[in-house]
């Protein structure tokens, strides 16, 4: 039985107390002395924007700080002016104290770190005590002065000069207190007591760090005795069905406050609209008035004046401040008034500025306020979200406020960096997940062009994580209604004028109840210009204007799109969970979005890996910094490990490889090859040209700001066409500027002469291969014509490769047919190969120091030497396992891919004792063939050292998201696995058994052709529940390559890591040479990484031009190639990238098939079936070849020539 509490309820454990003496919310106010300074705040980026307004900043400096273990341990007199704080430490404000070594960060996903017992929080409730001093500015006499805290986590009291000012909750909205009567001349003392946890914490269970303290700015605002206290800007538009602007108004409702009710009599309010010539966004002209100002005379007798009256802290009627209301408006389409306004969108963020000037009776300026204005309209019509009449697609991310060192205390520089990255990678929207952001974020998003979904600071996921007990959530309890309503109302009151906000959100994952209907009703009535979003309760409740599921797979939301009874658009509020090496099948989402008018995109979860800087001493090494996640601090609190490491970028804002996939998939420009009909001529002189359909996917912006370039690639390298490419083979040919209207397409005819290309290909292939097999690509890119705020001139907006049809290329006679016969063997006088057989191995030796060995016990190629250099450091062996990624680990009860692979023992396969049978033959003096047949089974010695040894996997409670699947489905008609295994009925075996047959054909020049047959039908014998399907991680080979061969070159996709289900943003080129270390992708939690897809050939070379290289050439389909200093076991065991210890050689994987990365979510098996590797029989061939460079032929060119020759030989055999 709990001990009864006899003391009064504490404010921080009382849902009915959400504040004391806190003023009503309003838009950001700054009290400028004149119009010029009011405009400069937004338009003069070189100046200190706050230097000319009546604001005194109390933050951006160190305060005195002491951390008590609980509120009861706070020094009782620390708020007194004469308290001696000389022994206290210093803490920067704003900051989170955990980021400065006080207490520890806590990370949990949906669970509260304590037992749910609302409204009570842990008794051990760390409490921060802050103190600072400031001087009351001169000239502020007779002003009303308020003290504002922009953001404090999670609840706090404040005192000024020893007198308690007030109390507040809600970590992400301002708390403003009237301190006019408490200020004293000279030095003033400010003290704050911040509790880490409060009953408000039950409403702030977002999937992010629990961090504490004053994390946003603190300042004093001085207002004259009569002042502008709030104002609302509206831009009603009339837009026709064809998106033509037919009417536009600008309306401003202004609330004024005065100490004396009659003081406003005879005053005037002047409203003016300003605009900047945006022809040069980086060097804008001075602001110009866009319309004639409106001057409104004020009257103290306004019958609605009570609405604006401020009675906060007023002891009685006489002490209350008085309010007044006035309205001004312009018909922006009226004749003779100037051009119509340009509309605001993310593509074209045209901004205007409203300046409100309050003048005294004598005409002098009392004060000015200003804000950005964007003429915009967002509404739901015809099952679509329309922005300014257009059904835009939301290319969004969910973004937490996060800095690797500062926690939630962000800087403007960091915000701009985020916005520029978003724009550079073709994103256009951000969900402020899951709370109102710093006000500067909104101003910057309006300026740069980002659609915002503004979300209330409300999440109670931990009450009902499985969506099984909705009555328990606070939204069904009237005790919590005031607090919930307060968070939505105050968010709207603060943010109502920001033009970038297109959607209001009632919060996140808080169940569903009457409170949501109340909040939705208020928002809709208060602001009909923006729709309402809320996912909880199934994402289709009456509280949301948008169907907004979480993590719905493509085949799940298509039925919604076909449901004629549903009249709301579908926008995923979270999807494509970006955890670690993920974001597979992203293109499939966007194919569906672009094909279904009512499916309008979504917000990726999430933007940034939320790692915080931590330090640790490495084993036998130095102390290093690393990005920590849940559980990385010595803490008594529970944690959810790395589940907050799920962003598209690292904490330092370096993009993950998946960002390039997003950029390509969401590019506003696309290129398609137009098929050329026979005899179709594309140029006046009768030469055929390549015809391209260039499509502008934008809804508002034309393509005039883009420049088109192109070039031709032959086998991944630029063809030297024209004088420009003769001088610089890496250059691009100009394609000219374009003038394509939004949502339109035009045909482009590239000046490519098929005959000229044919001659160049034939010349390049002469004596090497058949020109008809050439891979000729046209590579097109659209770049910025001029610099913008978010990117420099020549920034690549879109790039695409298209295969040039063979019908266009005029080869003439194929030189391979006219100049070469079939491949011949070695010269008769060349010494042949020698075969030596022992009980342990077959040894093959040949000229120039060639020495090769194949183990008779394992069937592995164990030695490859040439010219006195050893090329192999570990044998060539089959490999069916990869270091599990976060997505591989997703799933409870052994259902994850990683768990199934470990159960089967794929991580410890070895040749079964006595199973290997080998033979050798010598068909000719220059050829020896060694064959081996063996069985792979899990090694008993290595049991327990596998997939579960590294960082933990993720498994949410089933049903935690409305659309998350306990068992993944593969779409219509593909629910169950078609099991191809040969396990007999009644066989309960769970461990793998893999049959392998390999033939090594050794040639006189050191080439080793390996023909592999792998029977993996019994690799995953354990039965699965209905709905799940089996997949191997990979089917391929692994070898250790000598350390001196540390430079990688390959012809395949790149330049970044890519996978079978994530390669739309990769380009087919020849890459390298580059250090093997550079191919590693340093995910915070290690796993499979660094692979490149569709590789034709790869080569590892020494750092210098001299010495042998080792080439690996696929003789079957292109392979997944991975070259790394880290082995699978090392990647599997490590919990952080900094813990990885490199091998003394390079691990080279060549996979015939490699499972995709997955991307729907990270808590269930999410790889789409078409990107899996079923247990089946596989056959593939790889050629290993020692290659030396010469003055006449560089090693990469020699490797490519060898690939060509093998393709030719293969075609001759066929």
Automatic annotation (TrEMBL):
Keywords: Glycosidase, Hydrolase. It holds the Pfam family Bgal_small_N. It comes from the Eukaryota. GO terms for molecular function: beta-galactosidase activity; carbohydrate binding. It comes from Apatococcus lobatus. GO terms for cellular component: beta-galactosidase complex. Belongs to the glycosyl hydrolase 2 family. Residues 843-1185 form the Beta galactosidase small chain/ domain. Signal peptide: none annotated. This is beta-galactosidase.
